[in-house]
Every structure is written in C-alpha cells, then in structure tokens.
Amino acid sequence: MMLNRRSSLLALLLATAVSGSGCLNKPGPASNTVASQRMKPGFNIFSPAEDIEMGRESAERILRQTRMLDDPRIAEYLEQLGSKLAAHASGEKFDYQFRVVATREINAFALPGGFLFVNAGLLEAVRNEGELAGVVAHEIAHSALRHGTSQASKQQIAQLGLGILGSLAGASENRSLEQTIGAIGGLGANMLFLRFGRTAEKEADLEGARMMAQAGYDPRDMAAFFVTLESLSSHRLPEMLSDHPNPGNRQQYITAAIPNLPVSPNPVKSTPEFTSMRSRLAGEAGSIDRNNRLRRVGPKDPTSLNQITRPAAPDSLTSPFQAEDGSFSLRIPANWSPLRPDNNNWLFAPEGALATMPDKSAVLTHGLLISLLNTSGASVQEATSLFLQRMVEANPDFSIVNPPQPTNIAGLSGLVSVVAGQSPVTGTREVDVTYTVITPRGALLCLIIVAPEDEIHLYQAATRQLLGSLILNR
Prior knowledge:
This protein is α+β, with helices and mostly antiparallel strands.
C-alpha cells in the first residue's frame, strides 16, 4: 500500500490469467480422442481481425500499467521458443508476440490475436525447456483456437439471445474496435478472454501437446509441470492451476495421446539457451539491473530470486490499541508494531513489512492501515466511494477489484471493498481489503488489510479478530 508515492501495478487482467471458469465451449474433435488431428476454432461471432484488434488493445493497456522484465536476451529467448512452437499451431495464423512480466507469481496467459505474456516466476519454476515449451504451447493453443472471443461470444448470446447474431455477426466487417468491445460489455469484458472452462483447457492441453511433439519436445513435460505446480503450495494453488483440470487427469489424457503423436525418441529436454536464460534470471550473470530483480521486502535485501524472505504471519496473540481521541479501539496481532505517520493514519506492520522508497515515502507491504476521515455529512456509500477514488488516484495503476458490498462492522452498517495491484517493492500482486464504516462521531473509519495475493489467506483469522474486537465510541 503506497502512502505518498505513485506506484506501478499489475493490471487486473493478471489477477486471473489462465485461470477462471464458465467456458461454454463444446468439446472439439481432439478433446476426447484423436490428439494427432489439428483442432479448429469453435463458435465465434467475432472475426479473426477483431481478435487481433481486441488483443492488441488489451496488450497495450497491460504494457502501460505493468512492469516487464528488462532483459533483452531473456525476451529474445522466449520469442524464439514461442515462434518455434507457433509454427506448428493450427487454427488462425496470428503474428504471435511474447513478453515477460516482472513478477514472481507463477502464471502465463494469452490474449486474443496472439499476444502472450509469461511471468518471470514461471520461468523460474520450470525445471527444463520441455516444461516451459508445454506452458507456452498451451497458451498459443488458446489464441489459435480463439478460446477468448469464443467465450465472449457465447456469453453474449446467453445474455442477449439469438437475435444478437444478426446485429453482430452480420455486421462484423463494419464494426469499429470501440463497437466491438462495447458489444461484449466494455473493456472490463477483457476478463472473458482469460476465463476458460475445463473443456477449453483440455483442448489447449491436447493441441499444445501436438505442437510440442512436432517441435521436438515431449508432451509429458507439460503434464509433469502441472503436477510439480500442485506440490509447490500447501495453502494456495498457483494461478496456473486455478480451476484447471486435475493435474493427475491431465497427465493421464496427455499420456494416452502420446501413441498418436510424432514424439521424437530423443526429445528436447533442455538447451544451452535455457540454461543461460535461467542464469540471467537469477542475476548470476549480472545482466539484470538491481532495480529489475524480482524481490520481496524482508529483514534482508535479497540479491536474487533464490533469496526470498517474507514477514511473519499475523500472531494469534493480540495487543490492545486505542485511538488518542478515544473514538475507537481494537486488538492488533502482537507481532505488529504501530506507526503514526500523521494525525489521520495509523500503520501496524510485522518486522520487515514497511519499506522506504528512494523518495523517502513509506510503503506498507503486509499489515494494517487505519484512516479516520471527515465525511462532511456524507453517507457511508458516498464517503467510501470518494475514499476509494483517492486511493486509486494516489496509486493510478491500482484497480477496484470488488466494489463496496454491505457488511456489519461493530454493529453498524458498513462496507467491504477490494483494491488490488502490483507492489513496487515485492514485485507481486498486492491485495488491499478495505472495511469502511461511519463512526458514532460522524467520521469515516477505514481499515485496510494489506498483503500479497498469495499470502492474503494468512490474514483471514487476524481480520476476523480485528473486526470482532473493534469498539466505536461516542
């Protein structure tokens, strides 16, 4: 949570890259049996040219809002690997483009029209080039089979009925980009491009397996990587496993497809280029500028991806805190230290969770921020909307992920909202869960739980304790 500084943030698109739900695709011919046959894109009311337009628009927004890894050789390596695989893609022949996102989250995603993004954390997580080729082939398949706009098409039909076909499909060639995006619900509908159901995921797996085999790789490396991912987290699956088919099932149906694929007896497992990429990614070759390395804030300043420290989780033991004016009190995890940056704000953070930026501003990466603001008689809805607007203005790349929803706070009607984006310190997606309520004295009390997305589950019990202990005084 930035207090006095504009921050760069991961676009909301990356919150659900590759994961998601609700795909309405019917199984393609290779979804069930014949993996050696090339698949064809399914139902779609949009043209391939519109895939490219919408994908480019979304990609440009991501590039404006999200830090890419600043290493031309790593970018070149991914481009060469992607081009090698895309040469065997079926479906539409897009001009595929590949970029590396500077975040440690393990993920990758494909936009319509061949715009692909791979997180640096995924490049670190794969064990060999075969596993990376599996992920990249899977994402190319999503673009080639036009899963994103097919999903958007079917949702639009479900909402508006078959009558929309004449106005959309019949007028496809005459629509502008603005009209096309508007037809599926505005730029917020970009989420549809990334929310694939299990049928689409299986199609991408099998189409990707065929591409891998034809490019000289072993498709079993794709399945092996997803099994590896499942073992990386005991609490929260990496983004790439969210709502995907079970890794064991994937391994079974990919293995079953092997006899129908032209798998080399000596498939590519790794290459000198892969080894060089991993060396550069870890900073061992000194090629990545210190400011571009992917770090988490902690007691020590890590110098490579393999030296990651995280602040301790919230303590179950609590300590009392009361505002100086007596307007509110609550209990805070015992391992969180208080800080009063100004008269209207309080910070509570574990050791190593408060960083100082070069401009001397403070950045809270884990913990609690409390603000007490004058409402001038506004309702909780009005005051909360203004507060969230100011949060986003102070951190212009942040997005409101979940708009205010009613909740009970200390026996009063309050609201809970979620703002999220990329922390400039940890390099990961930050989640700010914001609770707001009008106090008996007429002020807006804002309690913001701050944590990286992959640690927010550790803060659920502490949040319940905080809210349960909150007392508002007259």
